[in-house]
UniProtKB/TrEMBL annotation:
Residues 452-471 have a biased composition (Gly residues). Keywords: Signal. It comes from Polyangium fumosum. The keyword Signal applies. Residues 452-474 are annotated as: Disordered. This is DUF4114 domain-containing protein. Residues 1-22 form the signal peptide.
Length: 511
């Protein structure tokens, strides 16, 4: 870096016009980062050489400037275009400017480019306080990722601290950031830097912003609803995990267009019922149950629902349209999805170092800090109430506030079911148990009845039980039984139903 002193009295003499698309402005009006055009390796060349498609201007930010350290932390010195080689340190982010003793060196000053930090990871460092951390350039004037701790330009209008670090999120490596520093001196009225931010650049992996890596809802329909929070300069955003695919008969909106199991997805003479292709009742080869009728789509439905057409997101129960999860409170830790109580983590397989939380694979809590009031339950890898750490509960119970309580406490199962041992199962004494029912989100248009049970969020026709209950689809002639609903169920309705209770699933059973 070749230093070009820029003083507060010369605000108009900056190159803002040529860098109008940059996002960071110094208190003296200088828009950064700049191309110093002095023969040095610029940031855009560095990113090209590293095969990381980062935009050196548009992706330059001052946030996030504090991070949650994860497992597998690394720090590598990747670029130096200054006469001196300054080092990198971390500090606990407390809201107060760190003192020299609070700075923990990762890469010592005068280290050559390519130096890798190979000491104890931040999470295992005795000095780590357990919260967020920031980073600082050390060896000369200390420059912080949090600009609030840098020298104040009191001569600027308005007065503000100098920005001495640019934060770039990697686009090829998850949970990784580039921190690009200017290492020149700053004062109440001066900025002895040229604004190219190529003096000392470090690449850090194994860090995320506060709130990153958590399950979230994208607001998109079907399988596109589930996401994980990702860090941006403006906070966290929900990044979609699953891309649309061709529709199949599985009770899920695979193509993320709103309707579930729509189109000709079964062989001729069959209809898609609760995620399974079953024979249509329209062929006349068998009759529906006595209290059922065959609707125009080929499903055996409650007779009172034969000619009922419900609005999107509703199902027919005894001739009346209602939400499929209305009046349903599922046993812990299940959630109601399209009329059935299910565990959203059932059938989900996560990669090493991850655990399922609300149907989404997230980093284990021993590698990702828990939110306030929560602590890491190392056996499950999930964040639980602090009072539940070390509490072991029997099957069918879970820890709440430090006490084991029945999973069925407060549960109100779908029609025709009762809660036993933490599961909504068929109630033999209920008259509804023998009636046709279906909890599939309707796309057939006419008739149908909502009932409980079924696996994976799909209720069983013929009054099938909940998870683990008998599958009676197609009983009495293998007739498909179905709910009433719009021919074109809206995507918003599916997303709302399919993701219902996601937040509640953040709490898990303490083992």
């Amino acid at each position: 870096m070749r230093r070009t002193p820029l003083f507060a009295s010369s605000l108009a003499l900056v190159l803002a016009a040529s860098t109008a698309d940059a996002l960071v402005t110094e208190p003296n009006g200088l828009v950064v980062p700049l191309d110093s055009a002095n023969g040095e390796v610029q940031l855009y060349t560095m990113f090209q050489n590293l095969n990381d498609p980062v935009d050196w201007k548009a992706d330059a930010h001052t946030t996030p400037n504090a991070f949650s350290p994860l497992c597998g932390f690394t720090a590598r010195f990747v670029l130096n275009e200054a006469g001196s080689h300054f080092g990198l340190a971390w500090y606990n982010e407390t809201g107060q400017k760190p003192q020299p003793a609070d700075l923990h060196v990762l890469v010592p000053p005068n280290s050559p480019v390519g130096t890798m930090f190979n000491g104890t990871s931040i999470k295992n460092d005795p000095g780590y306080a357990g919260g967020l951390v920031g980073f600082a350039l050390v060896g000369g004037e200390t420059h912080y990722t949090n600009p609030a701790y840098n020298n104040l330009c009191s001569a600027c209008n308005p007065a503000a601290p100098w920005v001495t670090a640019m934060i770039y999120a990697s686009k090829t490596t998850p949970n990784a950031y580039y921190i690009a520093f200017e290492d020149g001196s700053t004062s109440a009225s001066g900025w002895n830097n040229d604004g190219d931010f190529n003096d000392d650049v470090y690449f850090l992996t194994g860090i995320t912003c506060s709130g990153g890596g958590q399950p979230c809802e994208t607001g998109n329909p079907g399988v596109c609803a589930a996401g994980v929070t990702q860090c941006t300069s403006n906070g966290v955003v929900c990044q979609q995990l699953t891309q649309p695919a061709g529709e199949s008969c599985n009770g899920i909106d695979d193509d993320c267009n709103g309707p579930v199991d729509e189109g000709d997805i079964c062989p001729a003479g069959y209809v898609c019922d609760k995620g399974t292709c079953v024979q249509s009742c329209k062929g006349g080869e068998f009759d529906c149950l006595p209290d059922q009728a065959c609707n125009s789509s080929g499903y055996c439905v409650d007779a009172a629902c034969k000619d009922v057409s419900c609005e999107a997101g509703k199902v027919c129960v005894g001739g009346t349209c209602k939400g499929p999860c209305d009046d349903v409170t599922c046993p812990f830790p299940q959630v109601c999805r399209v009329g059935a109580c299910v565990d959203p983590c059932a059938g989900v397989t996560c990669e090493s170092g991850q655990v399922c939380d609300g149907g989404v694979c997230v980093t284990r809590c021993d590698c990702l800090p828990c939110a306030g009031g929560k602590a890491c339950e190392t056996m499950s890898g999930l964040c639980v109430d602090v009072a539940c750490i070390g509490v072991t509960c029997d099957a069918g119970t879970h820890c709440a506030g430090g006490t084991c309580v029945d999973d069925c406490m407060g549960a109100v199962c779908p029609t025709g079911q009762t809660c036993m041992a933490g599961q909504c199962v068929e109630n033999p004494s209920s008259s509804d148990a023998s009636s046709s029912s279906s909890g599939i989100f309707g796309t057939g248009g006419e008739g149908g009845a909502a009932g409980g049970g079924g696996m994976g969020g799909m209720a069983g026709s013929g009054g099938s039980g909940g998870p683990g209950g008998p599958d009676l689809s197609g009983s009495e002639g293998s007739c498909g039984c179905r709910v009433a609903g719009d021919e074109e169920t809206t995507g918003a309705a599916w997303a709302a139903l399919a993701m219902m209770g996601l937040a509640a699933m953040r709490r898990r059973r303490a083992r």
